Amino acid sequence: MKKLTIFKGLRNFLILWSSQSVSNLGTSMTSFALIAWVYSQTGTALSITLLTVCTLTPSVLFSFIAGTLADRLDKKRIMLLSDLLAAVGTAVVMILFFINNLQIRHVYIINFLLSFMNAFQAPASYAATTLLVPKEQYVRASGFNAFSGSVVTILAPALGGLIFTFGGLQTVLIIDLAAFAVAFSILLVFIKIPKIAPVVNEKKESFLKSCTAGIHHLRKNKTLFRIILFFAFINFIAKMGSYGMLPVMILSRTGGNQISRGITEAAVGIGMLTGSVIVTLMKPVKSRIKIIFFTCGISFLFGDLLFSFGRALPIWAFFAFAGNLPLPFLGANLTAIMRTKVPVEMQGRVFAARDTIQYSTIPVGLLLGGLLADRVFEPFMETASPVQQILSFAFGAEKGSGLAVMFFIVGMIGFITSFVCLRNPKYRELD
């Protein structure tokens, strides 16, 4: 029996992965610059959370249709078309900026359209990766994806902030379009995605029934469906903490200091990078479920609960690092379970159904988080009261202290919930 090497069977995947990583870096730099631009126009938490809501909502609304098309149509063509139309959206932002007519509502609308295209690209990419990667390399492929995501998280704030400061928004957009051109060309010319063999005696079903097939498959696998519902709840509360409100928290605490925000977000990426390197190199674990819930709880402990007490950049950077280091372990093992439990001919629809369920709570969490920050917690911490005085000893009374209280509450809920599920034997059948 030949010993499994790290890169065995991953050649085509790695070519695709590296090119898409370049494109993702350009996209993330643009996202960083647009958040900075929007915050400079409004200075409110709600304006930034609305931007993220516009980015996520189409993925939730159209995932069922997108997943069905990803299973029925050529995956490479879907990915190419989605990337091309997304690039057109970026070009529109650049043109509006050049003619001095870019407004906040334009950014919201274009982000909505970009997310609409990503709704089709994501399930096609999930299924394409499964076809390109040997089964025994699923966790390692997820580790590579986490690795590139971590590098992007590190570089995007630093490069995006630097280029935005010295070259302006238009320079960031030009770099984004150049990165897209590289990734598009490589996918078009060098990547051949294997076709799925037709299922013998498979009954043809209507398009509408096919759209709901993913959710029906999940409901039949009750334990898999249960864990997806768990992460829908986790996404809801997380977006009211460090995984949704981190830029607002740092900007509020520092008086709008983009450098502090960039360093903290880079620490997030370094933590994920460290975790993803470990996941990529380590042997597969025996119990993926235990790793998933344990790392989820630890992430909330460091990334929200302990982070909330920080009032200086070194403390924020340390707990941002520590809170995000466990996430690649969570993501890689959860994705590996999905790839193993779901037939490849249904993965577009099932992954789309999963994304719809898990991500449907994110816009609600973001909107609620922005409203609670601006209208409840921040005003509460600015008004003298017995409870406010007690809380101010731990979280301060300056701007951003209300957000710190929110982070603490989110951290407590996430930590406790994760470890309660860790002790639930029903989830272990997924191993």
Describe this structure in words.
This protein has 431 residues and is an all-alpha fold. The protein is built from 17 helices and no strands.
Q: Radius of gyration in whole Å, from Cα?
A: 21 Å
What oligomeric state do these chains adopt?
Answer: single chain
Considering DSSP H and I runs of 4 or more, what fraction of the residues is helical? over 70%
Number of helices: 17
Report, as a whole number of angstroms, the end-to-end distance. 24 Å
Order of helices and strands: HHHHHHHHHHHHHHHHH
Amount of beta strand: under 5%
Give the CA-based shape.
globular
Please give the largest β-sheet: none
Number of strands: 0
Which helices and strands, and how do they pair?
Elements: H1 11-42, H2 45-72, H3 75-98, H4 104-132, H5 138-167, H6 169-190, H7 207-220, H8 222-238, H9 242-254, H10 258-281, H11 288-306, H12 313-324, H13 327-341, H14 347-359, H15 361-382, H16 386-395, H17 401-422
